Amino acid sequence: MKKFNFRLQAVLDMRQKELEKKQQEMASIVKMLNKQIEELEWIDAQKLQVLTSLENICSSAVLDLTTISSSNGYLQKLGHQAINQNRVIENTKNIMKMKQLEINEAYKKVKVLEKLKEKQEEEYYRIYEEKMSKEIDDIATSRYKAG
């Protein structure tokens, strides 16, 4: 029984390390997602800044067509970057969902092994107490017979 407990503990340790590894992977995915969201926010801020400068140019007395044209081209470029960044964010969210499923599965495996170990320990202590009780009964019986 003890040999099996050592094996169970080794498997439990392995599963816990696997769970920790998956949790670390999830943390790196979340960190990457946060960076991607920050980049999208930067793109949006840049678009707003260009639009504000275009409004200022259009409201001025003299129109600079070269600046308007280049600003318009830059806005289109930022728009494409925003679309691509949204795709990247969606892909990362999908990866994160898959990783969460893996973590949940690994967590379930750890919990099952912990319950099994707990039951085995309870059984071990129950058997141990039965043996001790029998020994005490034997000692008491032998003293009664001897006296």
Supply the key terms:
147 residues; mainly alpha; single chain; 2 helices; Helix Hairpins; rod-shaped
Question: How would you portray this structure in words?
Answer:
This protein is an all-alpha fold and about 150 residues long. It has a single domain (about 1-145), classed as Helix Hairpins, CATH 1.10.287. The protein is about 95% helix and about 0% strand. The radius of gyration is 34 Å and the shape is rod-shaped. The two termini are about 40 Å apart.
Short description, anyone?
With 147 residues, this protein is mostly helical. The protein has helices at residues 2-59, 65-146. The longest helix is centred in the last third of the chain and has 82 residues, at 65-146.
